[in-house]
From TrEMBL:
<dbReference type="InterPro" id="IPR027417">
    <property type="entry name" value="P-loop_NTPase"/>
</dbReference>
<dbReference type="Pfam" id="PF13361">
    <property type="entry name" value="UvrD_C"/>
</dbReference>
<feature type="region of interest" description="Disordered">
    <location>
        <begin position="712"/>
        <end position="748"/>
    </location>
</feature>
<dbReference type="InterPro" id="IPR000212">
    <property type="entry name" value="DNA_helicase_UvrD/REP"/>
</dbReference>
<dbReference type="GO" id="GO:0000725">
    <property type="term" value="P:recombinational repair"/>
</dbReference>
<dbReference type="GO" id="GO:0005524">
    <property type="term" value="F:ATP binding"/>
</dbReference>
<dbReference type="InterPro" id="IPR013986">
    <property type="entry name" value="DExx_box_DNA_helicase_dom_sf"/>
</dbReference>
<dbReference type="InterPro" id="IPR014017">
    <property type="entry name" value="DNA_helicase_UvrD-like_C"/>
</dbReference>
<comment type="similarity">
    <text>Belongs to the helicase family. UvrD subfamily.</text>
</comment>
<protein>
    <recommendedName>
        <fullName>DNA 3'-5' helicase</fullName>
        <ecNumber>5.6.2.4</ecNumber>
    </recommendedName>
</protein>
<feature type="compositionally biased region" description="Basic and acidic residues">
    <location>
        <begin position="836"/>
        <end position="846"/>
    </location>
</feature>
<dbReference type="GO" id="GO:0016887">
    <property type="term" value="F:ATP hydrolysis activity"/>
</dbReference>
<feature type="binding site">
    <location>
        <begin position="57"/>
        <end position="64"/>
    </location>
    <ligand>
        <name>ATP</name>
    </ligand>
</feature>
<keyword id="KW-0347">Helicase</keyword>
<dbReference type="Pfam" id="PF21196">
    <property type="entry name" value="PcrA_UvrD_tudor"/>
</dbReference>
<keyword id="KW-0413">Isomerase</keyword>
<dbReference type="GO" id="GO:0005829">
    <property type="term" value="C:cytosol"/>
</dbReference>
DNA sequence: TAGTGGATAGTTTTT
DNA sequence: CTATCCACTA
């Protein structure tokens, strides 16, 4: 498909003429394919043409649809070439989805568009222009872990810890400054030099910036800020991009920070007149932003809600379109969401509505403990699944990552397939970071942090003393730390150490030869996997893991091999991708990017990660004071309001079913504390919630009438205290099990990730009687599955029917008299000792 | 230099 | 509770 010549630049005059002409055809051409099924507001959002457009898109109002059709429309009417479009999304996954949907609408024309996250777009620009400002294009990207490692060294070197500097506080402060586009010089001007703590921070900030630039590296925040600096310092470079991108679209605009805002401003500026061929000035690019201030949940990270609130004032003549009709959820869910968010003052009133009807009621549940709550979630999921809902359409959300423990444990026992999205990410594991450091040392030898990391990993007898000597040598001779390795012989070290250093240095050299991109015309190399393979085998890293006695190292070795297959997969998909390209991609993956829709598992994630996703059934867990309005948010201005938005985001992820759960007591840091229902629960109209067990019921176990939660705040205040045992710390230290008769549960083995209980040899058949630690006695109805995945379906006398993964469930087989068959035959007793003492069932009314 | 054991400190959300 | 740090010993 060739493009019409008439659209070609340079004369802007003629472009303007064409635009009108195109616009007239637009409505006609687009009405068929692209406007189908849109409501009037959506249609307007697709069709509007002007310099600035704000689409205020409530949750589930079809904004992705609008955005993709808007882009497709620009392409279809030939108002823009693909290369003139820049679309910014929040995650790579969203970017991929958007590209896919545009492709579905207009075909392969979509190829040349830039659809990416802020960070990827900036990396792309920075790599292209790096040489202009003292970096080289193979710079590496420091993730927050790398930044912290660097700061740790600096704080230690400066002995700043005695002044109360911690890594995390310093990292946060630097990040904040960078998000405000402050650099060392500008910050220095505002500093009170009389204050020792102030000037110390300045020194740290300066050291940190120097270290980054001498390592030829950027941290996350730099990627944005440095791009802005680049544009400001080099107007001709800015002009290039300003002329190139004619249409800029930004999704999730409410979560942009100041630096990102400034970047958008730079990109939409009228290009400075530089091009002699141009008769008159080119307009600034047209800007479309989509967002919802009610879903702003990243203020803690510098997101500035004013960017969207003041958009109209900011871009004069901006058009605002409001999308309120929701295509995702039932009315009950929306009413709950509306009533919660209405409690945030200073917001523009906006009410989501739908035409699909009320739907099911929201289900509420109050557990006695976090594990009870988790059991409720697992049971409900099982029921949903039996009624035909696929696991992949179900999600469980929580506020903090630590809440996954109880959920995971119960899910494993219940044989529920689940997946944790985010959390400790694959690429954050120590062994992966080690191996990545090898790759970085090859791709960017200036990155001293990476070189230091691998220097003695695996152990080669190079200790801190040797490392310091190398560093001194490097400094004295004005060379990089990497290069100092080449001169190991001149340091007068022992022969063993000298040889170890030289071998490492040679290995890196060899690898970098291998990493060279293939010469012009050569068949594509399979460079990245080859380089990685060489590094992990010759360095001895993989062997060291395999030889290790530590059982966890086996899993680590597997992870390293997994990374090797990741590189192979990467190279298959990107035959011309270089090592640096691979490293970039890895640095910029977000939690939600790991989601795989076809996985067939329940998804567990934090509320933050959940933004932008949707599921048929959603479980919001831990709706408690100090957890949902999180304790840490109380002090911050705007904190509680942001927490409410977080709750709102969670509610609006649900299509059909919404479950709200909480616990009366929650185990945290080893001891148990009392939890109160979240204030936000009362903001939902009582008639929308069907309490299976309300906070009122949960205290008075005997089964009184459900007490409406929403009735009165003080209604449950006093009822919440846990009987007995408020005495404090003696609790955990006594080893717990004998306290089992008391209500709050004692403790559970939290060994989910480590070795599990293992009933591997336990044979069960239909008709057998068993005793379960939590559910009491029951009868086996049937056994399905093979080997380690054998699942028993058990009818318990009082706890109902459950599915249990035999291998790991805390159960014993009983003989005809109701006694455990034999302690020895069930492996877990012998293996685990005190953790598995049978306890009184915490869930049962006693 | 490596490995161990005891003490201690930190506990929100993440591109 | 857990992860990390530090000091001490082999």
């Amino acid at each position: 498909m060739t493009r019409p010549g008439r659209l070609r630049r340079p004369a802007a005059v003629s472009v303007a003429a064409v635009r009108i002409d195109v616009l007239m055809q637009t409505a006609v051409e687009m009405s068929n394919a692209l406007l189908d099924g849109l409501n009037p507001q959506q249609r307007e959002a697709v069709l509007y043409r002007g310099q600035a457009l704000l689409i205020v898109a409530g949750a589930g109002s079809g904004k992705t649809s609008v955005l993709t059709r808007r882009i497709a429309g620009l392409l279809e009417t030939r108002e823009a070439y693909p290369s003139q479009i820049l679309a910014i999304t929040f995650t790579n996954k969203a970017a991929a989805e958007m590209r896919e949907r545009v492709r579905a609408l207009v075909g392969n024309v979509a190829e040349g568009m830039w659809i990416s996250t802020f960070h990827s777009a900036c990396v792309r620009i920075l790599r292209r222009e790096a040489e202009q400002f003292g970096y080289s294009r193979n710079f590496t990207i420091y993730d927050s872990g790398d930044s912290r490692a660097l700061l740790k060294r600096i704080i230690k070197d400066r002995e700043a810890d005695v002044l109360g500097f911690t890594v995390s506080s310093t990292a946060n402060k630097i990040s904040k400054l960078k998000n405000e586009l402050a650099d060392v010089e500008s910050y220095a001007r505002t500093v009170n030099h009389g204050d020792p703590s102030d000037s110390m921070f300045l020194e740290i900030f300066r050291d940190y910036s120097r270290a980054l630039s001498s390592a030829n590296a950027f941290d996350f925040d730099d990627l944005i800020a440095q791009t802005v600096y680049l544009f400001r310092a080099f107007p001709h470079i800015a002009a290039m991009y300003q002329k190139r991108f004619r249409h800029i679209l930004v999704d999730e605009y409410q979560d942009t920070n100041h630096a990102q805002y400034a970047l958008i401003r730079e990109l939409t500026k009228e290009p400075a007149e530089r091009d002699p061929g141009l008769i008159s000035a080119v307009d600034g690019a047209s800007l479309t932003v989509v967002g919802d201030s009610d879903q702003s949940i990243y203020a803690f990270r510098g997101a500035d809600i004013r960017n969207i609130v003041e958009f109209e004032r900011d871009f004069t003549g901006a058009k605002v379109i409001l999308l309120e009709q929701n295509y995702r959820s039932t009315q009950n869910i929306l009413t709950a969401a509306n009533s919660v968010i209405a409690n945030n003052f200073d917001r523009k009133d906006k009410k989501l509505w739908t035409s699909v009807g009320d739907g099911d009621k929201i289900v509420g549940y109050t557990g006695y403990s976090g594990h009870d709550e988790a059991q409720f979630v697992a049971d409900e999921i099982q029921t949903l699944h039996e009624k035909g809902m696929a696991y992949k359409d179900i999600a469980v959300f929580y506020r903090t990552n630590s809440q996954t423990r109880a959920l995971e444990e119960i899910f494993i026992r219940s044989a529920l397939p689940y997946r944790i999205v985010g959390g400790t990410k694959f690429y954050e594991r120590a062994e992966i970071k080690d191996v990545m450091a090898y790759l970085i040392a090859v791709a960017n030898p200036a990155d001293t942090l990476a070189v230091r990391r691998i220097l003695n990993t695996p152990k080669r007898g190079i200790g801190p003393a040797t490392e310091t000597q190398l560093a001194n040598f490097a400094e004295k001779n004005q060379m990089s730390f990497r290069d100092s390795l080449r001169f190991a012989g001149e340091l007068g070290l022992g022969p063993k150490v000298t040889r170890a250093i030289s071998e490492l240095s040679n290995l890196l050299d060899e690898a970098s030869v291998l990493a060279e991109p293939p010469a012009e015309g050569d068949a594509a190399s399979d460079g990245v996997p080859e380089v990685l393979g060489l590094l992990i085998s010759r360095s001895g890293y993989l062997d060291a893991l395999r030889r290790s006695q530590d059982p966890q190292d086996e899993a680590r070795a597997e992870n390293v091999e997994e990374l090797l297959s990741v590189t192979k997969e990467y190279q298959r998909n990107n035959p011309t991708g270089t090592l640096i390209d691979f490293l970039t991609e890895v640095s910029l993956v977000a939690a939600a990017d790991e989601l795989d829709d076809s996985s067939g598992t329940v998804s567990l994630m934090t509320l933050h990660t959940a933004k932008g996703l949707e599921y048929d059934a959603v479980f919001l867990t831990g709706i408690e004071e100090d957890l949902l309005p999180h304790r840490m948010s109380a002090g911050e201005p705007g904190g509680p309001a942001e927490e409410r938005r977080l709750f709102y985001v969670g509610i609006t992820r649900a299509r059909k079913r919404l479950f709200l759960s909480l616990a009366m007591t929650r185990a945290q840091y080893g001891d148990v504390s009392v939890a109160m229902p979240s204030r936000y629960l009362q903001e939902i109209p009582g008639e929308l919630i069907d309490w299976k067990q309300s906070p009122g019921m949960a205290t008075s176990r005997g089964g009184t009438q459900p007490r409406a939660l929403n009735a009165r705040r003080d209604g449950y205040g006093g009822a919440y205290s846990v009987p007995g045992n408020r005495g404090g710390s003696s609790y955990g230290s006594q080893g717990g099990a004998q306290n089992g008769a008391q209500k709050p549960k004692t403790e559970w083995s939290n060994r989910v990730t480590g070795q599990m209980r293992d009933n591997g040899d336990l044979v069960l058949a239909a008709g057998d009687r068993i005793r379960h630690t939590d559910f009491g006695d029951g009868k086996v109805l049937g056994v399905t599955g093979e080997g380690a995945k054998r699942i028993a379906e058990v009818q318990f006398e009082s706890a109902g029917r459950k599915r249990l993964l035999i291998k790991v469930a805390p159960l014993e087989k009983l003989d005809a008299d109701g006694n455990p068959v034999s302690a020895a035959s069930t492996a877990h007793d012998a293996a685990e000792g005190d953790q598995t003492d049978p306890r009184v069932d915490e869930f049962e009314p006693s």
